């Protein structure tokens, strides 16, 4: 209760500051500066921010209280999309570059933690399991999108925002509080004490080879599959952006898919005799399907190949997480895998695949699925079950 009381005060202060800034800019635009667009944005924000005070009201009618949690989770997360672009416009118009950069640095850091009140006071109090599932996806997508508002000058801030690393960190922090509120155990950062050292060494070697192959193998036929390597960096100019992009994907997607979604699936399937098998399968399927969002920025054929590859990679990532018992192994693997591909190509998107790419995909799928099955069967299954018990995933959380 003491923590919630402090978070309620935090939300009150955060909302008041937003409200005061919008009121000030509204007065300025109405009586000093004529700007129809700015005035309209200010009026909309004034309404949205004012409504956020209702989450602090403990006397809301019981029939409406759950509805309000849904509304506030969506409202509090969505409003900053407009608010920060609004602030950004004001800074550019009315301050110099030094002040603009300094304020944006503060905002960028603060954004990592700003949704904790929403998670504690709204999203964390949603009771329906499907409501939780849908809202968590909405929050994840919105936070990732809104973290990429434009930065006018500073190269480091541009790289941070364009890469969505701030959104990934923000979601990880928010989900940490929300999942605890829902009764889940937070992810472990240490390797399970039960894993085999031999298997761990094999996994490390496999991960290194897989990452290098993904980025630097230039074979265009089976003849050069072991000999055609090109260790290059496509562009030094955007290396920081590509590195942060890979890290953002590693943190955001692994936190969402392996910590949040896999935990949900394991709970939903807790009465199934094949709980582990179906949980990692559906987790991989969802992980593959979310890559359909890449369709607007790359050829459809590339997206379809990416979806199939991501689905099997997702299954492997799930099996790896369950066996090692730590989210760090997944973040590291995912980060290195994407980083190798990005720095080799100089881009975050894929080109149209060749016939050989499709042939190679079949082999990769079989390898990933084979290793996944190995990690969750036989003696390894006992390690997985031990790790699940530590995470409390055999107990009801809903």
From TrEMBL:
Transmembrane segments: 12-32, 38-57, 69-87, 99-118, 130-149, 155-178, 198-219, 239-256, 276-294, 358-376
Record's signal peptide: none
Keywords per UniProt: Membrane, Transmembrane, Transmembrane helix
Keyword Membrane annotated: yes
InterPro entries to which the protein is assigned, alphabetical: Rce1/LyrA-like_dom (IPR003675)
Residue intervals of the CAAX prenyl protease 2/Lysostaphin resistance protein A-like domain: 237-339
A matching Pfam family: Rce1-like
UniProt record similarity statement: Belongs to the UPF0177 family.
Protein name: CAAX prenyl protease 2/Lysostaphin resistance protein A-like domain-containing protein
Source organism: Lactobacillus bombicola
């Amino acid at each position: 209760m003491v923590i919630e009381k402090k978070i309620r005060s935090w939300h009150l202060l955060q909302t008041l500051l937003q409200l005061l800034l919008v009121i000030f800019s509204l007065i300025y635009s109405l009586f000093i500066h004529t700007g129809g667009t700015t005035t309209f944005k200010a009026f909309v924000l004034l309404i949205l921010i004012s409504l956020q005070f209702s989450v602090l009201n403990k006397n809301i009618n019981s029939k409406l209280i759950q509805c309000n949690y849904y509304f506030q989770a969506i409202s509090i997360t969505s409003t900053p999309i407009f608010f920060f672009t609004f602030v950004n416009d004001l800074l550019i118009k009315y301050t110099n570059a030094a002040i603009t950069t300094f304020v944006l640095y503060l905002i960028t850091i603060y954004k990592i933690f700003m949704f904790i009140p929403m998670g504690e006071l709204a999203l964390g109090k949603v009771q329906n399991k499907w409501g939780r599932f849908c809202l968590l996806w909405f929050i994840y997508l919105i936070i990732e999108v809104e973290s990429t508002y434009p930065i006018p000058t500073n190269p480091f801030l541009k790289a941070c925002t364009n890469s969505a690393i701030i959104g990934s960190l923000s979601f990880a922090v928010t989900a940490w509080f929300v999942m605890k509120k829902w009764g889940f155990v937070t992810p472990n950062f240490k390797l399970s004490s039960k894993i085999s050292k031999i298997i761990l060494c094999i996994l490390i070697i496999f991960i290194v080879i897989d990452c290098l192959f993904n980025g630097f193998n230039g074979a265009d036929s089976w003849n050069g599959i072991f000999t055609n390597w090109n260790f290059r960096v496509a562009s030094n100019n955007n290396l920081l952006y590509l590195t942060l992009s890979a890290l953002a994907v590693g943190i955001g997607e692994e936190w969402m898919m392996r910590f949040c979604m896999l935990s949900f699936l394991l709970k939903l399937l807790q009465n199934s005799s094949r709980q582990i098998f179906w949980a990692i399968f559906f987790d991989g399927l969802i992980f593959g399907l979310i890559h359909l969002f890449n369709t607007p920025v790359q050829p459809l054929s590339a997206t379809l190949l990416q979806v199939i590859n991501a689905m099997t990679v997702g299954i492997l990532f799930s099996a790896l997480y369950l066996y090692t018992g730590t989210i760090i192994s997944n973040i590291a693997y995912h980060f290195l895998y994407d980083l190798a591909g990005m720095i080799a190509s100089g881009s975050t998107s894929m080109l149209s695949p060749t016939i050989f790419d499709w042939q190679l995909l079949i082999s990769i799928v079989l390898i990933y699925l084979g290793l996944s099955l190995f990690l969750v069967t036989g003696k390894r299954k006992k390690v997985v079950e031990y790790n699940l018990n530590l995470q409390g995933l055999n107990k009801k959380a809903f």
